[in-house]
Amino acid sequence: MAENRASANEEAYREGVPCWVDAQLPDVEAGKRFYGELFGWAFEEAYGSSVWALLDGDRVASLAPKTDGRMPTVWTVSFATSDAGALGRRITAAGGQVVMAPFPVGGLGTAALAADPEGAVFGLWQPGTHPGFGRRRAPGTFVWAELYTRDTAAANTFYGGLFHDALFGTDAEPDFGRAHVTEVFPAEMPPHFLVHFRVTDLDDALGAVQRLGGRVQAPPFETSYGRVAVVTDNQGASFALLHR
Questions:
Q1: Overall pTM > 0.85
Q2: What CDD domains does its record include (predicted)?
Q3: What burial class does residue 188 get, using C-beta atoms within 10 Å of its C-beta: 0-12 exposed, 13-18 middle, 19+ buried?
Q4: What is the DSSP string of 120-168?
Q5: At 68, is the pLDDT very low, low, confident or very high (cuts 50, 70, 90)?
Q6: Contact (Cβ atoms closer than 8 angstroms) between residue 64 and residue 111
């Protein structure tokens, strides 16, 4: 495993702030080729069989092999917490569920998986030596997480209660919003989080996605937070490209 080195850009994230994204893929090597070309990422060994994605030496994401073929090929966003166990209990009390109980990831931190009352899955991250993103909001890095839900009022209540300070507190700069599923996806699409990466030229990025074996799921559309397109990588994991 590579040395746990912290970037000068890494920061402490308050509870409820999106602090990490990871992809579960059938073929990590294919993922490295796809995302390395698309975003200019380099890679190094991380914990277990996963790899860090680096942009100019800063940690921006991780790729991991699926341990079970029945698991979805997916990008997952994780929210920061100082106590994953306590947050899990609050999630359960609010009508969500803990899908995977908190577990240690070496000395890097403690992870968990949860789902909101509609079933949208998200991660929790309690930092150890790895606080989260070494860089975010820049081209080639995470910039936004959009929750696509069938009940925005219920989502407002659930996440507003869990992560009030991160969403509405003093100096809060949320990287997290929500929309009706039917604004972008067919009505039968399950509620889910969509991870957004920032790009400098959306049309160029869409061309690269297709050249690399991915596909365009939803062509560019305007949102309150920028111009977005939804794509899938060459293994079927969905994510969004955002220009603003």
A1: yes
A2: SgaA_N_like
A3: exposed
A4: -EEEEEEESS--S-SS-SSTTSEEEEEEEES-HHHHHHHHHHHSHHHHH
A5: confident
A6: no
